[in-house]
């Protein structure tokens, strides 16, 4: 695969995108579906409970919902959640600020992209259809893999499908399991702080919004630099 150059270095071999919370603000859809299901079975589902599921593989999330009183098999729980979220996404794809502009910039530059999500393939259809034409050269969904995030399988598979070395890729994630998955796969990784905190760690870039991320940033990160645009708790209090 050709390695296009910029004034500061080569583009990433590919950009590997998480979906829920990262590219699209669908976490509220999932939380609403979880609330509906737990309450229908006489249980209580708090916002903190919901945040604990962010980034999890869906079968693991279903087991946690069972522990909160949902008296259904795992597959029935997943069918309900996926159907509810798919209904909401079909009405409106809630792109995160800056997401579409960055996808267009990557497509124009010829940088391959893959979608790497724990959501099932049926949920990726509306997003891929609404994205710039041809931007996603691969889609790895939760029902395509054996091991969910934080296992690296999904990111390794995405890079393989694109025909690139994962170590030359930049992955963008919003959850601890997703960040762990991307780092374990060997990708340069960006954590975007949306629903849950993204603590600093060696080798991890951090941003607060895709609107703050540029193609030049991705070039820097691909060559091993890190960026950090999340204020510390002390800085937030001072602000």
- Euclidean distance between termini CA atoms: 46 Å
How much beta, percentage-wise? 5-15%
Give unreliable regions as ranges. Answer: 1-8, 233-239
Largest sheet report: 6 strands, parallel
- Estimated helix fraction: 40-55%
> What is the structural class?
alpha/beta
Subunit organisation of the chains = single chain
Record the strand order, biggest sheet: 3-2-1-4-5-6
Please report the total strand number as a whole number.
Answer: 6
Number of helices: 10
> How many whole angstroms does the radius of gyration measure?
18 Å
Q: Give the H and E element order.
A: EHHHHHEHEHEHEEHH
So what's the overall shape? globular
Q: pLDDT average, as an integer? A: 89
Question: Could you explain how this protein is built, in words?
Answer:
The protein has helices at 27-40, 47-51, 58-67, 74-91, 99-109, 121-130, 153-162, 176-185, 215-222, 233-238; strands spanning 14-17, 113-116, 136-140, 169-173, 188-192, 204-207. The chain has 239 residues and is of the alpha/beta class. It has a 6-stranded parallel sheet, with helices on both faces. Strand 2, helix 6 and strand 3 form a beta-alpha-beta unit. Helix 1 crosses helix 4 and helix 3 crosses helix 4 (74-91). The longest helix is centred in the middle third of the chain and has 18 residues, at 74-91. It is globular, with a radius of gyration of 18 Å. The relative contact order is 0.18. Mean pLDDT is 89; it is low at 1-8 and 233-239.
């Amino acid at each position: 695969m050709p390695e296009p150059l910029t004034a500061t270095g080569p583009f990433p071999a590919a950009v590997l995108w998480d979906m829920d919370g990262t590219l699209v603000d669908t976490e509220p859809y999932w939380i609403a579906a979880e609330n509906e299901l737990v309450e229908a079975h006489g249980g209580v589902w708090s916002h903190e409970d919901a945040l604990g599921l962010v980034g999890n593989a869906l079968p693991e999330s279903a087991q946690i919902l069972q522990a909160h009183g949902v008296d259904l098999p795992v597959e029935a729980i997943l069918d309900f959640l996926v159907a509810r979220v798919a209904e909401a996404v079909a009405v409106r794809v809630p792109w995160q600020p800056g997401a579409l502009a960055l996808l267009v910039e990557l497509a124009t530059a010829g940088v391959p992209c893959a979608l790497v999500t724990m959501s099932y393939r049926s949920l990726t259809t509306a997003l891929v259809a609404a994205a710039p034409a041809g931007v996603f050269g691969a889609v790895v969904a939760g029902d395509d893999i054996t091991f969910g995030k934080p296992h690296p399988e999904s990111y390794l598979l995405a890079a393989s499908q694109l025909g690139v070395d994962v170590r030359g890729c930049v992955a963008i994630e919003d959850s601890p399991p997703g960040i762990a998955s991307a780092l374990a796969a060997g990708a340069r990784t960006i954590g975007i702080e949306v629903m849950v905190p993204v603590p600093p760690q060696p080798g991890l870039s951090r941003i607060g919004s895709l609107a703050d991320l540029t193609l030049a940033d991705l070039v820097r990160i691909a060559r091993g630099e890190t960026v950090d645009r999340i204020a510390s708790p002390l800085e937030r209090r001072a602000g």
